[in-house]
Design brief:
- By secondary structure, the chain is mainly alpha-helical.
- Among the domains are: 50 residues, no CATH class; 50 residues.
- The chain has 9 helices and 4 strands.
- Strands 1-4 form a two-stranded antiparallel sheet.
- Helix 4 packs antiparallel against helix 5 and helix 6 runs antiparallel to helix 7.
- The two termini are 31 Å apart.
Length: 183
């Protein structure tokens, strides 16, 4: 699960994907390292307390001589966000250029609130998944039929999560792909 910006600004611990890079001739100039843990510089970032308060964040940026750069970086990121908003579409929507433009026009700037303990949607979903997975495991160990387990789980956590749990409990063995290796 992704770390909150508030936690990140306090502990400065993160990880970054470092993929392989090849030059024009196909020579590897940087090998694949995967996710690499590293720290962020304390002197170049506000604390979570400063980040949370408009006044403290403004003072931090002014005191560090980076107010203009912070504002520019925020505007640049917003342009990237608008492009993503423009092309975004839910399953049931029919995307058109007008649809995308309306989404951009109605997008609002929002400050990032500090997450409240246990109220984060991802945390709740993870807890619901873990609880229902334990329930499903217990039902399976007591030889309840899979359709009964599915019905109980669907009532408890919804059909999508119920199906996900059954997939976790009964993974599909794909013997053909397990022997493939590319080295």
């Amino acid at each position: 699960m992704a770390k909150s910006i508030y936690v990140l600004l306090d502990d400065l611990q993160t990880e970054t994907s470092v993929p392989e890079i090849m030059d024009k001739e196909g020579k590897v100039i940087r090998k694949h390292f995967g996710m690499v843990a590293h720290t962020l510089p304390r002197e170049k970032l506000p604390t979570s307390e400063e980040f949370e308060s408009e006044e403290k964040l403004l003072a931090w940026a002014k005191n560090h001589g980076v107010l203009h750069a912070c504002l520019q970086a925020g505007i640049q990121q917003r342009v990237i966000d608008y492009r993503a908003i423009f092309k975004a579409c839910k399953k049931d929507d029919v995307w058109t250029p007008e649809f995308g433009q309306n989404a951009v026009n109605s997008a609002e700037w929002k400050a990032t609130d500090r997450p409240k303990a246990g109220s984060d949607k991802a945390d709740k979903e993870k807890l619901i998944l873990e609880t229902n997975l334990k329930l499903a495991q217990a039902m399976s160990e007591n030889d309840l039929p899979e359709d009964t387990i599915l019905n109980i789980l669907t009532d408890s956590c919804g059909e999508d999560m119920a199906l996900k749990i059954l997939t976790i409990l009964n993974p599909i063995d794909d013997d053909d792909s397990s022997d493939d290796s590319e080295e």
